[in-house]
Design brief:
homodimer, 10 strands, Rossmann fold, four-stranded parallel sheet, alpha/beta, globular, six-stranded mixed sheet
Chain lengths: 321, 321
């Protein structure tokens, strides 16, 4: 278990994160108590400048590069939010960024990456295909490939976990959406190092369960991937986050895509926040396991808000009055 | 012009505001530059815990009350956001709150006020009718009536204006939605006292132009009120905010409700933020006067995000693909 990220790494990331970002709000919503049956707070990572938590990690990673690494430019693959994070960080540090996205990726997220000055290339049918391709491109060009779960990203995103535990030290349960796992790992390291009694629960879509199956069996399991939640759409699990999750995670549950979509609507109705599908998975999970949450203080991580308008339109049509 | 609120009043309000709230983000959106033709920042008052800027004023007002005034409880009228602000502040200080809302008020806002522990009473066909009624009720019961433009509210909400000028001192133009006028007055006092070259522009709906007509003619003018933007729905103008606006405001424009609705959609698409109609009026105004904004650094105040889901549904249906 050597070299696993620690609370100290997260503490060290803070100056790099807070040079560009402010802590996000943690708000209590009485209206959600009626839905879930216990006190609910939301950690608003959707209020980040690029609309998702990952920007914390990108900034810390970019700040940690050598001059030579910066000159080679950053290369990565993304379904959208990680790419926006790398684009934001690259712009902040004057580094070039080249981002591979799967074909048919969220057009709003692509436009946002381009708006930040990144070069965006569509390649492959899903995230993992795009990732394998851009890794080779980066190698050929002598660029710096940023893997979606590189340690500095975990250190950086862990700062939101620390914000939760500092703002609400009495929290009992934190529910975190899992894509590649950097968010849940950073949160769990921060929260459980400070208070081992906090439960940290991961949530993935039942239509993309690779990370959950791998955690449950403690082996690396690929799985079908057919979720509407691009932020949870992992087909091939990541070893370094799995290793951390084996050590720190209390539970890891699956929710159906239909519950996620309903949660997008419920969050819009009751909190007036736009959550993307992944960002709403934590509420879907809380509703599903509400019997286990009675009398507990529960924090739901709203990991991002970058939903495509046409997806929102379809959800409004389905769940709105 | 004696007794008009000053920058000093706003500075004095800060400790009361920041005891409960954090500064809200001011984000730059490259995607909005394409729409408006110049650099656009958004002041995210929709990120407040009750989803609108007014909570700053409510907290400062409650903090300024005597023990006797607190014991009598707070009484006010609201189309929603002011009521949530007073409910939030009353809860924070352990004071009772009784809020009159017009019949047919936004059910989400009513639920939120009740969730904060306020007593909510529907009365009258519009805001002004509800206000006249609850003023009498407060008098009968010995309670403290909070008018929507009471000076401490202007001092409190002015803290967001100060945040704008401190974060982006080079701002050229600030566009602010106007309902009763507390937001635009606080902003103008803060911004123009520090830098008289900043232009502060108010915006109201063409379907509720009472404040604009009054400002333009420097007389108190009632007007037809038939806007979808409840946050701009003022039929009877307010003298104290008009007096401040006469001194500080550079311009006051009207935008059509249809432009406001389109702006709600554009903000959702390009910033992934949910703006209520009033909160989107600043973007509608910027698009309308884009020829005047060339090469200027423009801040749009997104005053609130509490849109009713069925209203959003109808906007998505109209403007979404």
């Amino acid at each position: 278990m050597d070299n696993m990220p620690t609370l100290y790494d997260i503490i060290c990331a803070r100056p790099n994160v807070y040079r560009y970002l402010s802590p996000t709000p943690l708000f209590h919503y009485p209206a959600l108590k009626k839905l879930v049956g216990t006190d609910i707070w939301i950690k608003h990572e959707n209020h980040q400048p690029v609309g998702a938590f990952k920007v914390r990690g990108g900034l810390h990673l970019a700040a940690s590069l050598t001059t030579e690494q910066k000159q080679g430019g950053l290369y990565t693959a993304s379904t959208g939010n990680h790419g926006q994070s790398i684009g934001f960080a690259a712009r902040a540090f004057g580094i070039s960024a080249t981002i591979a996205v799967p074909e048919g990726a969220n057009p709003g997220k692509i436009a946002a990456m381009k708006g930040l000055g990144a070069e965006v290339i569509e390649h492959g049918k899903d995230f993992d295909t795009a990732r394998e391709w851009i890794t080779a491109v980066a190698h050929d060009r002598g660029g710096y490939f940023v893997g979606p779960t590189d340690d500095p990203l975990i250190h950086g995103v862990g700062t939101y976990g620390l914000e939760i535990i500092e703002k609400l030290p009495e929290v009992d349960v934190i529910i975190v959406p899992v894509g590649a796992g950097s968010g849940v790992c950073g949160t769990a390291i921060a929260a459980k190092t400070i208070n081992p009694h906090v439960q940290v629960i991961g949530v993935q879509s039942a239509q993309a369960p690779a990370m959950q199956k791998s955690w449950q069996t403690a082996t690396m399991q690929q799985a079908e991937m057919d979720t509407v939640a691009e932020g949870l759409a992992t087909r091939i699990p990541f070893e370094n986050t799995q290793r951390i999750m084996q050590k720190y995670l209390d539970d890891f549950i699956l929710v159906d895509d239909s519950s996620i979509e309903q949660a997008v609507y419920l969050l819009l109705e009751h909190t007036h926040n736009l959550a993307e599908e992944a960002g709403a998975a934590s509420l879907a999970a809380a509703i599903q396991i509400r019997d286990r949450l009675v009398h507990k203080k529960v924090v739901l991580v709203m990991s991002g808000g970058n939903i495509a308008p046409e997806r929102l339109n379809s959800i409004m049509h389905e769940y709105g009055q």
